[in-house]
Amino acid sequence: MNERISGRQFALMAAYVAIGDSMLVLPSIPINDAQQNAWISALVGLAAGMMVVWLLSAAGRLYPHLTLVQAAEQLLGKWIGKAVSALFVAYLFLSIGAHTREIGDFLTTQMMPETPIQAIHIMYAGILAMAARLGLETIARTGEFFFSFFIVFLAAFILFLIPDIKLNNLLPVLDGGIKPILRGSITMTAYPFMELAVLLMAIPAVRKPQAIHANFMRGAFMGGAVVLLIILLSILVLGPDYATRSIYPSYALAKKINVGRFFQRLEVILAFMWLLTSFIKSAIFFKVLQTAIAQTAGLRTEKRLELPLGMLVVCFSLIISSNIIDFHEADHYWPYMDMTFSVILSLVLLAAYAIRRAARRKGTTGSGNKGKD
Amino acid sequence: MARKAAWLFIFLLMLSPILSGCWNRRELNDLAIVAAVGIDKAKDKYLVTVQVVDPGEVASRRGSAGQSPVSTYHAVGGTVFEAIRKMTTSTPRKLYFSHLRIFVIGEELARQGMGEVLDLLSRDQEGRTDFYITVAKDTTAQAVLNVLTPLEKIPASKLYASLEVSAKSWAPTVAVQLDELITNIVDPGIQATLTGVTIRGDLEAGNKKKNLESPDVPTRIQYKGIAIFRGDKLVGWMNEEESKGYSNITDQLHSTVVETACPNGGKMAVEVIRSKTSIKAKIRDGKPEAEVIMHTEANVADVECKIKLTKSSTLYELENAAGAAMQKHAEHAIVKAQRLKCDVFGFGDAIHRAAPGYWKHNKDNWDEQFAKMPIRFKVNVKIRRIGTIGESIMNDLKE
């Protein structure tokens, strides 16, 4: 990758990945578990998530000039490294398929019920492929450019909802005990934060390696805070019951906006925000998938992978589940898959690094035997 | 060269499906905009009535052709959705529900349980939650939707507006939207309520355009009373006084009129301009109890008796009298609700907030607990102003 992104762009990419599809599909999951206490789940998730990001960042900075795939090969040896990379590629591919399906399901449920989902998937995969061809730098700049719009829309969204807030919806605090809250926080940690593992593939592109850690943390926190706000608003405005019942609570939120009978029917604002964050997120995933495949398979160039990948994504997103309920059942195990490729993978890399370093030190301070590395 | 041309051809061919435009577009003149929906029970099926706006008749510029500004269609079906789709056999266009203003449930259906009909409204993607829901009192939803109204050409808009206005400035009506209704139906700590709508006057005359030809129209639709539900079943009605008390206790009262007796006989009216009510619930000796605290600001609006208004002690007396009147309304509402064992005020939710542990064990028989729960009042009325004149002319009337 000869592309260069700034620390700020890296931070915004982290924010986009954290907000991403979580904005629309996440809120009902913790609310379902913890009811009116879901905002505490979100807080717990935010705290746990920041630890995950810290871990990811630590793993990423082991070799700031290498991508995750290259670092895995370096640390775990060629064959184990390649096996891990192949699994990572499969994970990326699954994620992109799921994102595409989320877009398709949302648009066909809420906005265009009579449009075949294939048409939406083909177009979405088409622009993903186009974004990937233009490169990570372009995606990062697009994200940077649109972020101010996103913030303005989000501020308007929150402002317009303030009249509908019912503080009583938050009470009683902690009536179900701590367990449901923790259960709710699993998804809240996984979807926004653990999926940030993809950015470990983008680390070599960051201009100043010393700026990675702070920007990674800052971006992830920003994204997590947005998700927390959306969850809080869903409870405050819709109440836990209606928020759980809705498949897309934040869209139901947007439907509630009615300021002076004049500012109403602003669902499109929400749809815009979600399509934007979700698109940047899946574009980053797509580009990273392309790089990961090229580096794992040892291809000389990663160009020309976009089109076949795009076609695969279209097909895969259609067969990934037979109906929407089937699709949402993935929420039971998807967080653990996210965990495998973020927490566990980072820990493995850090452990491998530590063992190698210890072995090397032992080799040099010991009887003079050369270490194997 | 030929190769290039072939590619160009393929490229253009690929563009063509995109260029055809919005394949699934629906123009305004392909839609029948539904302003109101009414659902009644027809034996074991549903009778669905829709009120569709005729845009040409509503637009004021062009002189109307003397047709009715709205048309109603009805159909019977085993499910609501089936009935609505069946209506396409009689409607010229496809019904479009996004601009729904008012949803009327027939009393008979409400008594048997209306849960089934609410699902479609929240599930369908055309449905929104910003319309009001009412119950047709002593009549059918179909009859209500067939009445033409003066001033507002679309009866559904009249129903919508007058519910909103009366809830704001008269109080014995509640403007309930779908999400609130659904939450109240499923929440064990509160029961749902809906405002009743009824027809006053001659039923037959109401659905002719003739109904609009005299200034005092022979048939009107009017809000009356608040329906009390247990779960999704209607179990009783509150009268006007009880309804006022109800909206006061549930903090939905913005402005209303309180009629008070004068110290020396006669009557006067006080206008409430703002009111804030909070419910404090607690458990004492293992029994739930609650206190309703009302803070009300009011002005003297209408004096129809002899009274020395320009003395501050008179105003304090009036404050007490108005407070007593408001408390009486509220007590009536509570008596009615406790007799029906329906906690429409959300005391259960207040207990849930105050004592989650108690609530966990008692929520299943909350109705019984509510029925014998002591409720105290603390009413605090402040009369600030007396309008633009001082002493009433009543004091100086010639004998």
From TrEMBL, chain A:
Keyword Nuclease: no
InterPro entries associated with the record: Spore_GerAB (IPR004761)
Pfam family, one: Spore_permease
Subcellular location: Membrane
Presence of keyword Transport: yes
Source superkingdom: Bacteria
Main location: membrane
Membrane topology: Multi-pass membrane protein
GO BP field: spore germination
Keywords: Germination, Membrane, Transmembrane, Transmembrane helix, Transport
This protein's GO CC annotations: membrane
Regions that span the bilayer: 12-32, 38-58, 79-98, 118-136, 145-162, 182-203, 215-238, 268-286, 307-327, 333-355
PANTHER family: SPORE GERMINATION PROTEIN A2
Family of the protein in this entry: Belongs to the amino acid-polyamine-organocation (APC) superfamily. Spore germination protein (SGP) (TC 2.A.3.9) family.
Name under which the protein is recorded: Spore gernimation protein
Species of provenance: Paenibacillus pinisoli
UniProtKB/TrEMBL annotation, chain B:
Domain Spore germination GerAC-like C-terminal: 224-387
Listed GO CC annotations: membrane
Keyword list, A-Z: Germination, Lipoprotein, Membrane, Palmitate, Signal
PANTHER family named in the record: SPORE GERMINATION PROTEIN B3
Principal subcellular localization: membrane
Topology relative to the membrane: Lipid-anchor
Top-level taxonomic group: Bacteria
Entries under InterPro entries matching the protein: GerAC_N (IPR057336), Spore_GerAC-like (IPR008844), Spore_GerAC-like_C (IPR046953), Spore_GerAC_C_sf (IPR038501)
An annotated GO BP: spore germination
Protein's name according to its UniProt entry: Ger(X)C family spore germination protein
Keyword presence, Ribonucleoprotein: no
